[in-house]
Amino acid sequence: MGNGLVDFALGAAVIAAPQHQVPILAGGAAVKLVRLLRGRRKDARQAEDAARSSDGGAAEQVTLAWEHVSCSLTDKHGKTKEILKDLSGTARPGRLLALMGPSGSGKTTLLNALSGQVPFAKRMHLEGRLTMNGQPAATAAFRQGYVQQEDIFYSQLTVRETLMMAAHLRMGDASQGSKEALVERLISRLGLAKAADTVVGDKKTRGLSGGEKKRLSIGCELIASPTLVFADEATTGLDAFQAEQVMQTLKDLAADGHTVVASIHQPRSSIFAMFDDLVLLSEGGLVYSGPAADALDYFASLGHKCPSHYNPAEFLADLISIDYSSPESEASTRARSAKLQAAWRQPHTSTPAASTASRPASATSQVVPFVASGRPCGWPRQAQLLFSRSWRQISRDRATNITRAMTNINSAFVFGAIFWQLKRTQTAIQDRMGLLQVCAINTAMSSLIKTLNVFPTERVIVERERTKKSYHVLPYFVSKLVAESPIGAMFPLLFASIVYPAARLNPSPARFGRFLGLLTLESFVSSSLGLAVGAVAPSTEAALALGPAVILVFIVFGGYYVNGENVPRALQWLPKTSFIKHAFQGLCVNEFEGLEFEAAKAGLPVTTGQQVLDRYSFYDRSVGQAALSQGRILLFNYWLTYCILKAKKPRYLTMETPKAA
Ligand SMILES: Nc1ncnc2c1ncn2[C@@H]1O[C@H](COP(=O)(O)OP(=O)(O)OP(=O)(O)O)[C@@H](O)[C@H]1O
């Protein structure tokens, strides 16, 4: 059975089992999982050892060559769009190669293709040949780092902590002292000394500048001691000064013998002057590949002379861009782009690309590594590290915690004021029911929204780290849940402590304890639903749109609006899945059992709490059963999230060998 199927079967068995069998099944599942995981860890270590022995642990320089790289996308109607058209080129050690081209020209796709990270898409086809020092890239064991366009970090960790965490996760076998020394070296080399103890920050917390974040991203990639460094749009969104600093960092890396390939949009002339080599793309086709210094001469030879005192990057960008301002200008600029692509395809007697082969910039044959390489740490250590990261993130996030606390206190005061000191009259029965229902809905919503706001971004970090094989999903997920629980439990406590006495609900400490326990459990269940939705949704915005739509169904079947007995047969499973209903039932039983009401002056009076419960079809429920039902949904959501996270491991397209080859 495949691993995914094993997880599916185990999870399904735990959820579907009768209650008394759950511990036995869960125990069996745990043993099986541990065995599976041990097996996989062993495999991973063997693969790691093989990779090490193949490169001997030495930071050998690498020349990356690509030939006939094409990428195309066919739509549903069979129409094919060429994203990359038969590209060939070389990136050499000790040289900074810049990929330039207008937006949509294929820079990111080429960078992804060169790093073996073109995201899998059903109708996309990728072909070409990639070699590293003459060996097929698939079998070459050179380490690479990929600095992504978007800098995403745990916002509450400082620069030093972020780098230290990367070092711990990826250099498990190195000593603490050597990791600390390496991190300090990186900090000073990346010009981050002043910001070393500053938290990364986010929209709510002030932190690093854009340039500092980008340099931190580079630092995190350098932990693995890559010989090849890719950077996508490294300067996008930065001011001129920060952009120059980031490019200088990449240039310094190249000077140390790394092979650096960076895509960039319209750099200023001082940055253009840093490029050793240049690849220019227009509409997925190559219009130039060779030394940056020779580019202007090449285009001048085609009749496109750059005016003096003009930024060469701007001149080249204008030359190869498509002008969509009018049909005529679009046609003429497309024609010019096609002409330039055709000109490049002509054989060059003294092609700039050929000339670079004879003059590598670095005289050494080894990369000067920033750090020593290492293997990832073991599972218990991973769990420990990830726990400390999650704990720091949640405990330091004052802005989020204060907002959550204020929201809960505010709701508690509003509900407390509306349902102030409930009496034992007939009309107060409805008020009690209403209050318990809004308590259940409020707890579910506040917990869900918080999770949806945070988790999709965190998931992207986890996916990136898993691509680097830094850790497995299980230690991450378990440590995250454990770390977040204590603070997550604070908010229902705040809410319950205000609303319970304000409304004068059943005044017994034990009943208050159960009220609090049910709300806390419900808050965790709602958060687990948020994790599952956040794991599926492609972005925070999508998660925030999807989550409330899902929970609305659970609110409708929350036990107050629709009586479970009147739900159509085909939909009877829905109330069973509504954790809001289970919480509400538990709260009602806790509140009404043993309660006596004043008799009505007219009509049929409801004088006991049990009669109220019977009327809502809650006669066979207990607080324990309600808690157990919530617990099962909680476990199901955790299991579902775990499976989604595992299945969502980034998939990349395989580069096929060109047909002509
Ligand atoms: N998975 C995909 N599905 C559909 N279209 C895609 C996909 N990947 C790339 N493309 C298309 O291929 C073209 C090149 O995209 P790419 O992101 O490589 O360009 P780019 O030069 O990096 O652009 P930018 O500078 O704006 O980031 C674009 O038209 C893009 O829409």
UniProtKB/TrEMBL annotation:
Region Disordered, annotated ranges: 335-361
UniProt KW keywords: ATP-binding, Membrane, Nucleotide-binding, Transmembrane, Transmembrane helix, Transport
Transmembrane portions of the chain: 485-503, 515-537, 543-562
Name the UniProt record assigns to this protein: ABC transporter domain-containing protein
Listed Low complexity bias regions: 349-361
Pfam families: ABC2_membrane, ABC2_membrane_7, ABC_tran
Residues of the ABC transporter domain: 64-308
Alphabetized PROSITE patterns for the sequence: ABC_TRANSPORTER_1, ABC_TRANSPORTER_2
Keyword Cell cycle appears in the UniProt entry: no
GO CC terms: membrane
Membrane protein topology class: Multi-pass membrane protein
Protein's cellular compartments: Membrane
Domain of life the protein comes from: Eukaryota
GO molecular function: ABC-type transporter activity; ATP binding; ATP hydrolysis activity
InterPro entries noted in UniProt: AAA+_ATPase (IPR003593), ABC2_TM (IPR013525), ABC_transporter-like_ATP-bd (IPR003439), ABC_transporter-like_CS (IPR017871), ABCG_dom (IPR043926), ABCG_transporters (IPR050352), P-loop_NTPase (IPR027417)
Chief subcellular location: membrane
